[in-house]
Write the structure tokens for this entry.
Amino acid sequence: MIDKRIPTLEEAVAGIEDGSTILAAGFGAAGVPTQLIHALLDQGARDLTVVSNNAGSGRDGLAALIAAGRVKRIVCSYPRTSGSVVFEEFYARGEIELELVPQGTMSERMRCAAAGLGGFYSPVSVGTKLAEGKEVREIDGRIYVLEMPLQGDVALIHAAKADRWGNLTYTLSSRNFAPDMAMAARLTIVQTEEMVELGDLDPDHIVTPGIFVDRLVHVGKNA
Amino acid sequence: MIDKRIPTLEEAVAGIEDGSTILAAGFGAAGVPTQLIHALLDQGARDLTVVSNNAGSGRDGLAALIAAGRVKRIVCSYPRTSGSVVFEEFYARGEIELELVPQGTMSERMRCAAAGLGGFYSPVSVGTKLAEGKEVREIDGRIYVLEMPLQGDVALIHAAKADRWGNLTYTLSSRNFAPDMAMAARLTIVQTEEMVELGDLDPDHIVTPGIFVDRLVHVGKNA
Amino acid sequence: MSATETIARLSRRQVAWRAAQDILDGWYVNLGIGLPTLAANFVPADREVVFHSENGLLGVGPYPKPGEENPDLINATKEFVTLLPGASVFKHSDSFTIIRGGHLDLAMLGAFEVSKDGDLANWTTEDLRFPPGVGGAMDLAVGAKRIWILMEHTTRKGESKIRNACGYPLTAAGVVTRIYTDLAVIDVTPDGLLVRDMAEGLTPDALQALTEAPLSFAADVKVLTAPAVE
Amino acid sequence: MSATETIARLSRRQVAWRAAQDILDGWYVNLGIGLPTLAANFVPADREVVFHSENGLLGVGPYPKPGEENPDLINATKEFVTLLPGASVFKHSDSFTIIRGGHLDLAMLGAFEVSKDGDLANWTTEDLRFPPGVGGAMDLAVGAKRIWILMEHTTRKGESKIRNACGYPLTAAGVVTRIYTDLAVIDVTPDGLLVRDMAEGLTPDALQALTEAPLSFAADVKVLTAPAVE
């Protein structure tokens, strides 16, 4: 029987290794897997590379993980937001590496890894500082840079509804990076607001098929 | 006001030019835009390149378009099916060109065009006859071939429900190539079983956002 | 009273109003942070425009009333928003398929500088006190069918932001198609910058004096005006 | 009664049954046209297996009862199917993200030939009377975590289909991990072909005589058996 449900957050993040690449879903405060990030904080893995659109806000979630000195490197498009004080302190002291990636290139590189492709040619960033060191190529009269797949060891995802096979739906803008990240990691861990019976989700409305999900923990609505 | 509804099939296919590349959705008999293909037959455009998973079956639809001598070239993964008699006759007489593409490469090349990318490296077909003439490259110890975007001039799509903005849903396996093709054509023409009011489709359940749709014609259920 | 004081400079909101008048019925539009976002308020009521947000929304509506905010519904600026009937939600890589793939009719963006060739610099001033951020700026700049820039004509120090070449790091080369400032509306054409509208009180020479890049002027240059808007 | 007549050759359905016994609980599996498709019927009842179909389905169930066919619900072989509770539907490019991206535990495919190195030839015999077709064969061959081949051990003319090198055009090189035939179950290992099961009545020498590629034999070679299945 396929049953991806895990009783506790602690068990859900068990085994995440030092040096892992963590794909952390969320855009702004929507769809952020806050409980899983706090469980990862308790779990103890170090030297992490975190892939996330932003670099944390306030003192919770990703900011807490950075504050605890556990994030070696962050891959993101927009690290600086109104509340990104922890990241900024670490960055100013040279205690965290930053790989800045155009926002669309971030999700496309994850999708590339998920789809088993070796890389793709993108017109984005051509002729800019962010293309320095990248292979440039003219195709059909337009200039592109070669972008490489971005694979995660672990993805942390927040879903609205899930069934025991790991099929997921999301609510509105909480979807954002979750489907791309869920596909692109070797181990995909999901916190869900609601756990439903197998067959309750309409096959036409499932956004992330369970094949991309490994572990599932029920955290309730005010996650 | 945005209103993509077109009263008749004839008007829906108006202006398709000779030499166009037509992306024709459908897999087996599911999701085939049969009425639109028949309207294209009446419309008269010639020297067409048709991109479709199969090469038509029986004497209707795509088979009728081929039988009328209007298809110069077909891009497909599996031209020969139990009923592909018309295609086989034309192929045997050398009256139609065939570009055979692995099935996943077909949709990925269309998505590549839709996403504004210049090409991608795929592990599929490496070392086979279908990779002859393609650039080969080793990335991270694995061999890939370079695949190029496949852009359509026109996509012909069958949807289950649509609203006047062109938002679409599909039923079960009738989805197949439709979302990829709708994104990859300069002119996307849709026949829909049901036309609903703006706002009737749940934003979380829309599969093809209206931005990818240009014309919409209501054909009813037994399309 | 000096000469510059007689120039009928538009306010920031008036620049947004002016640009919004040129958004056509049926367009799909992405609005950048700041000044461009204001333009959503000023689209003429008889035009149906679909606003896109990078985080995966089409059909973004006005801000919610206080108390009606939905934590699952924010825009790319992380503001609470609403959705209009006809809105749709999609994953991030699909959102940037829309952007990069040329499906948006227009992206309205802010800028630090624009060059005479339409080069755009709007992502970093290389202020080393802060980490750089790029967001979706480079994707939008190369992806949308039209790139319109809304900005002040000059810096606070009075230096021209419309230059022969950008001094700040590029976002993308040769992408800007039109510039709306508090002083003028300028098309970027293959033959250079062409002034379409000019604020009252300015002469071509006076506008050129405030602009580093060489300007030419349309035969029918219009007066740049906007109503008092809040 | 000749020697070959004493060999307990499996029927086609028995080969499918035998292979199905090795599908583990919880696996995601794609079944190719023909012999592999039969395996779905023989998965032990206590194992939950999710079947994938290239046209965009996970959780494919049994064939519908006559009269209950849904024209919107077919598999990659264009047969009417049903969906199990937990099934999901997705677009074609996502379906091949599942395939190419290594997300399937197993693809069970037919073959014209397999080489000692696991090369697979299953897409064309280059019969020039017919147009070639490839479908998803090449995608599945390079994408799934395991590629198991179900086929007759020899051609109708008695020639070995397990060869030193494939004579027919390749589908993919070095991808096959296990072969199920009417005579044997054979693992493709870095050290060559290793026989796990062998039909009753065969000796290692007799099996080798029917097989072009060199075989080695597991210490505990089992008897290849299957119940009478319909």
Notes: Chain B has six helices and eleven strands. Chain B touches chain A through 26 residues (CB under 8 Å). The two ends of chain B are 28 Å apart (CA to CA).
